[in-house]
Specification:
Arc Repressor Mutant, subunit A; mainly alpha; Rna Polymerase Sigma Factor, Chain: A; 8 helices
């Protein structure tokens, strides 16, 4: 792939890449920015290994995920396994207008629901719903089989449904 083309792909997918890095770094913005910079360097260095069959975003997300795993394991401070509602994922999207407060509450509520899921299920939903990945693309990013990805996806949906029902909510609007 030509160097200019890969740079255009990076620019085009930057918001999604940042959102995924933020998720992989447990909402640590500083670490996510460092991971993203390191991942972009790797992407540019390894552009010759890119196979268009998987799609640039899927390939880039896998590199970001692996870079984040390395960075988190090297990080000296201990990270908490659960996130509080103050650490809601920020995928770099802004809202405006009258619905901001309702959107914020909905985001907090959904983040609380996601925090009750196992990590792999959260990752699958993050990729599918926030980054428009297919389940097969999510499997590739997470380096798991497509069958395993489908199981995690189905289990996550069932778990969320049970959680919402316990809260007295039949469906999110």
């Amino acid at each position: 792939m030509h160097d200019g083309n890969i740079k255009l792909q990076i620019e085009y997918h930057h918001k999604d890449c940042y959102g995924w890095a933020l998720h992989c770094c447990h909402a640590d913005r500083e670490l996510a920015q460092e991971v993203l910079q390191m991942a972009y360097v790797k992407i540019l260095e390894r552009q010759h290994t890119f196979k268009a069959a998987s799609g640039f975003k899927t390939w880039a997300f896998a590199i970001i995920k692996n870079t984040a795993i390395d960075a988190c394991s090297k990080q000296k401070k201990s990270m908490r396994l659960t996130r509080s509602e103050d650490n809601v994922l920020d995928a770099g999207y802004e809202t405006d207008g009258a619905g901001v407060f309702d959107d914020r509450l909905r985001t907090l509520f959904f983040a609380e629901a996601l925090n009750h899921l196992p990590a792999r299920q959260r990752e699958i939903l993050q990729l599918v719903f926030y980054h428009d990945a297919s389940i097969n693309q999510a499997a590739e990013v997470l380096n798991i089989s497509q069958g395993s990805a489908r199981k995690h996806y189905d289990r996550a949906k069932k778990s969320l449904s049970v959680w919402f029902n316990k809260k007295g909510i039949s469906a999110l609007q």
